[in-house]
Design a protein that fits this description.
The structure holds two protein chains of two kinds. Chain A is mostly helical. Chain A has helices at residues 3-14, 17-43, 47-62, 65-75, 80-84, 88-91, 94-119, 123-131, 136-166, 178-189, 192-221, 223-228. Chain B has one domain (12-227): MetI-like (MetI-like fold), CATH 1.10.3720. Chain B has helices spanning 13-46, 50-65, 68-89, 100-126, 129-137, 142-172, 184-195, 198-227. The chains are: A mainly alpha, B mainly alpha.
C-alpha cells in the first residue's frame, strides 16, 4: 500500500466532491418536482394523464441510467432540428445532460415513492379536512402533502443515496466528478487499490452523512414518535 | 432508417441480438454468483463467529455504499493482479489474465451479492423459530434442518427481494460495457459510431432492456405464485 501516494492524491479526489454534490442536488431538486407531478398525474381521475405517468415510470425504471444518459448526450445531437433549436445551448453541455438524465431517472422512482405515500394518508383525515370546509388544494397542501412527505422520507433517503452512487455515471459522459478523477488517476498511476479505497471512503462518508441527515429529519418530522419514546 | 437494424449483411440486427445474449449471460452468471455469495454472507451474518460476521458487515456496507462503476473499475484495473496474488498462494507465479467476461461477472456478482446477502438474511430470519425447534425435537440434524426446513422457506420469503436484486443486476450489466465486453450497450455504442445514428441505436438498446426487464418481471411473478401455492391466504 502506497500511503504517500494516497496522501498526495487525496486533495485531487476531494476536488471532485463539489461537482458530485452539485449534480445530485440539482437532479434531486428537479427530480422531486417531476416525481410529484408524475405521482399526481398517476393518481388523477384523467385516464390519459395516468397512462402517460405510468408509461414514463415504466420506461425510466426499466432501462439502465447509462442508456438514458447516452440517449440524451449522444442521441439527441443526431437531429439537426435539436441542434438548431434553443435547447441545444443546454443539450450540448455534458453537465446539463447529466442533470437532465439523472432528473428524469430519479423522478420516475420518486413518483412511485410519493404515490405510495400519498395513498397511505388515512382517508379519514382528508374527509375531516373537507368537513372543515377546506378546498381540494388546501387539503392537499395542509393535510395530504405533509403526512405523505413524512411517510416517504425513509424511502426517499434511500433514493438520494442511490443518486449519489448513480452520479458516478456522469464521468462516462466526460464530467470529472469523484469517479471520473479516480479513473484518471488510476490510469496514470496504476495504483488501483489505493485510489479505490480513497474514492470509496469519500462516497461512504457522503452516504453516511446523508443517512444521518435523513434520520434527523425523520425524527424532527415525527414529534409523536419522540413523545412515546 | 430501420434497415440499419435489419438482420442482413448491412444491418446491425445480429450484433445487437448477440449483445442482448451477452447481457443475459452476464446477468444470469452474476446473479447466480450473487446468490451464492449472498447465502454465505447471510450465514456469516447470522452465525456466531464474530470475525466472519464483521467481514460480511464490511462487505455489504462498502459494496452497497460505493458506486457500482467504482467496483467495476476496481476489478477491471485490479482484477488481474488480484488473480495473480491468489494464484501465487497456490504456488503459481506466472502471468494470469482474466477475460472481460469473467471480470464483468465477478464485478456485477460482487455487487449483486451484497444486496442478496441482505435479502437472504431477512428471509432466513422470517422463518418462524418454532419450526426449527420442532425439527430439532423430531431429531433432525443441522444439515437436515437446513435442507428440509430453512432453505425451502427462506427461498419463498426471499423471492420478491431477489426479484428486485435481479432487476438491479440486469441494469448494472450495462456498466460492464466500459470494459469492452460486447453486451447491449457496447454493441449499440459500436453501431452508433459506425452509422452516426446514436439515437436509433440507443433507443433500440433501451427497448431491449425494457423487453428483458418486462419478461423477467413476469417470470418472477410466476415463480412467486408457484412457491406460494401451498400457503393459506386470508
Amino acid at each position: 500500500m502506497n500511503w504517500q501516494l494516497m496522501w498526495d492524491v487525496l486533495p485531487t479526489l476531494l476536488a471532485g466532491v463539489p461537482l458530485t454534490l452539485q449534480l445530485v442536488a440539482l437532479a434531486e431538486l428537479l427530480g422531486f418536482a417531476v416525481g410529484l407531478g408524475t405521482a399526481l398525474m398517476r393518481l388523477s381521475d384523467s385516464r390519459a394523464a395516468a397512462w402517460i405517468a405510468q408509461a414514463y415510470v415504466f420506461v425510466f425504471r426499466g432501462t439502465p441510467l447509462l442508456v438514458q444518459l447516452y440517449l440524451i448526450y449522444y442521441g439527441l445531437g443526431q437531429f439537426d432540428a435539436v441542434r438548431q433549436s434553443a435547447a441545444w445551448t443546454i443539450l450540448r453541455e455534458p453537465y446539463w445532460c447529466a442533470i437532465l438524465g439523472m432528473m428524469l431517472n430519479t423522478g420516475a422512482y420518486t413518483s412511485e415513492i410519493l404515490r405510495g405515500a400519498i395513498q397511505s394518508v388515512p382517508p379519514g383525515q382528508v374527509e375531516a379536512a373537507r368537513a372543515c370546509g377546506m378546498g381540494r388544494f388546501l387539503v392537499f397542501r395542509r393535510i395530504v402533502l405533509p403526512i405523505a412527505i413524512r411517510q416517504a422520507l425513509p424511502a426517499y433517503g434511500n433514493e438520494v443515496i442511490l443518486m449519489i452512487k448513480a452520479s458516478s455515471l456522469a464521468s462516462i459522459i466526460t464530467l470529472m466528478e469523484v469517479t471520473g478523477i479516480a479513473r484518471k488517476i488510476i490510469s496514470q498511476t496504476f495504483a488501483v487499490f489505493e485510489i479505490f479505497i480513497l474514492a470509496g471512503l469519500i462516497y461512504l462518508a457522503l452516504n453516511f452523512a446523508l443517512a444521518r441527515i435523513f434520520r434527523y429529519a425523520e425524527r424532527r418530522l415525527s414529534p409523536q414518535a419522540r413523545v412515546r419514546a | 432508417m430501420l434497415d440499419i437494424l435489419s438482420f442482413g449483411p448491412t444491418g446491425w440486427g445480429w450484433q445487437l441480438l448477440a449483445g442482448a445474449g451477452m447481457t443475459v449471460a452476464v446477468a444470469l452468471s452474476a446473479f447466480a454468483l450473487g446468490v451464492v455469495i449472498g447465502s454465505f454472507g447471510a450465514a456469516a451474518k447470522l452465525g456466531g463467529n464474530v470475525v466472519l460476521r464483521s467481514i460480511a458487515e464490511v462487505y455489504t456496507t462498502v459494496v452497497r455504499g460505493v458506486p457500482e462503476l467504482l467496483v467495476i473499475y476496481l476489478l477491471f484495473f485490479g482484477g488481474n493482479s488480484m488473480a495473480m496474488a491468489v494464484a501465487s498462494v497456490f504456488g503459481y507465479d506466472g502471468y494470469v489474465e482474466l477475460n472481460a467476461f469473467s471480470i464483468g461477472v465477478a464485478a456485477v456478482g460482487l455487487i449483486s451479492g451484497s444486496y442478496s446477502t441482505e435479502v437472504i438474511r431477512g428471509a432466513a430470519q422470517a422463518v418462524p423459530h418454532g419450526q426449527i425447534e420442532a425439527a430439532r425435537a423430531c431429531g433432525m440434524g443441522r444439515w437436515l434442518i437446513l435442507r428440509r426446513v430453512l432453505v425451502p422457506q427462506t427461498l419463498r420469503y426471499a423471492l420478491p427481494g431477489l426479484g428486485n436484486v435481479w432487476q438491479l443486476t440486469l441494469k448494472d450489466t450495462s456498466l460492464v460495457s466500459v470494459t469492452a465486453l460486447t453486451e447491449i450497450m457496447r454493441a449499440a455504442y459500436l453501431g452508433a459510431g459506425a452509422t452516426r445514428q446514436p439515437f436509433l441505436f440507443y433507443t433500440t438498446a433501451a427497448v431491449l432492456y425494457l423487453l428483458l426487464t418486462t419478461i423477467s418481471t413476469a417470470a418472477f411473478e410466476r415463480a412467486e405464485r408457484h412457491t406460494m401455492r401451498g400457503v393459506r391466504r386470508a
